[in-house]
Amino acid sequence: MAQQDSARQTAEGAASAPASAEPGENLEFLDDTVDAGEREQAHRERGTARPITVVGNPVLHRRCQDVTEFGGELAQLVDDMFASQRAAEGVGLAANQIGVDLRVFVYDCPDDEGVRHVGAICNPVIEELPAERRALDESNEGCLSVPTAYAPLARPDYAVCRGQDIQGKPVVVRGTGYFARCLQHETDHLDGYLYIDRLSKRDRKDALRQMAEGTPRYETVPND
Ligand SMILES: [Zn+2]
């Protein structure tokens, strides 16, 4: 996911969610804030940045394959994804955004208190929220695969994402604010959907127009 579009930020979203009554309160959430900067740096220094696929590339428009092998190849892919995310100044990146058909995403994203979260999730699933926990936030959203475009998109301002870490251990990550948006956006990628697929026809057209008029500041994979 692209960085927050502060200049064109729409009105602040709905009231922030209460801290109590978390869905699945018995869950053990992963603390992905510890040593966030050091972990992100270690990953990206081992990795190589790759060009980013853009809307129209088939790998972005179909469901990716489940991760079943949690070895050195996956670790290298995740390192390359962190390097690519940094090179493109993104806050989240799914494997198919560097052309790899595998259900894994990485993130380096601030939450609604500005706290930095860094991690990688394999085989992610976004948990359904109970109705009373669904407060929509209508911030702008952008995507490295739709370069230079932004559009407001209503999404729940809180998200719980279940999956596995790169060793295959089950993990549950929760996010607020822009990080909640990121968890949903990246999981959508691995299901074969871009955020523009959730926009009205008119807003989608406008986003594609912004993309056509802009020039990305990072390398992209040309579409045939
Ligand atoms: Zn994206």
Automatic annotation (TrEMBL):
Q: Which reaction does it catalyse?
A: N-terminal N-formyl-L-methionyl-[peptide] + H2O = N-terminal L-methionyl-[peptide] + formate
Q: Quick check: keyword Hydrolase in the entry?
A: yes
Q: EC number(s) in its UniProt entry?
A: 3.5.1.88
Which superkingdom does the taxonomy of this entry point to? Bacteria
Residues annotated as catalytic? E186
Gene3D superfamilies per record: Peptide deformylase
Q: Please name the InterPro entries in this protein's record.
A: Peptide_deformylase (IPR023635), Peptide_deformylase_sf (IPR036821)
State the UniProt keywords alphabetically: Hydrolase, Iron, Metal-binding, Protein biosynthesis
Q: What are the required cofactors?
A: Fe(2+)
Tell me the SUPFAM superfamilies matching this sequence: Peptide deformylase
Question: What's the protein name?
Answer: Peptide deformylase
